[in-house]
Design goal:
With 129 residues, the protein is mainly β. The protein has strands at residues 10-13, 21-27, 30-34, 40-46, 49-53, 56-64, 67-81, 84-98, 101-106, 115-121, 124-127. The protein has one domain (10-127). Strands 1, 2, 3, 4, 5, 6, 7, 8, 9, 10 and 11 form an 11-stranded parallel beta sheet that branches. The model is unreliable at 1-18 (pLDDT under 50).
């Protein structure tokens, strides 16, 4: 994987993207995505920094050291190590790997907690205020 070029914050303006997959691949990329709702954001690589504006159905991270912040995501899936996700609202989290952290503020689940499935060591999913 090649080091991402510094093109400044690239904004993906997406209209009518229900069900669309937005892919970010590589190392060291910084991206801002403007989602309209229903999209899947897929990140493959290492040390990428992604901001998601708007709500998406799925966030899939495969790699190491990626940082994602955003609004509402229905499902977060992580495979890798040392990834950090800070989300407003979320319902389901699936993690395979080591030292991945997911922080969220709220959930629509009746239990008040996200549904969590983890495999690996030192993974953390935490509801924050």
């Amino acid at each position: 994987m090649a080091k991402g070029t510094d093109l400044g914050p690239i904004i993906y303006k997406l209209a009518n993207q229900q069900g669309k997959v937005i892919s970010i691949e590589g190392v060291g990329n910084t991206r801002t995505i403007e989602a309209k709702g229903g999209e899947t954001v897929q990140i493959e690589g290492a040390d990428n920094k992604v901001v998601i504006r708007g709500n998406v159905s799925k966030l899939i991270i495969e790699g190491k050291g990626n940082t994602v912040t955003g609004n509402d995501v229905v499902t977060v899936t992580i495979e890798g190590a040392d990834n950090m996700v800070n989300i407003g609202s979320l319902e389901t989290v699936q993690i395979e790997g080591v030292k991945n952290h997911v922080h969220y503020k709220s959930t629509k689940n009746k239990s008040g907690q996200a549904k969590v499935s983890t495999e690996g060591a030192d993974n953390m999913v935490m509801k924050v205020k």
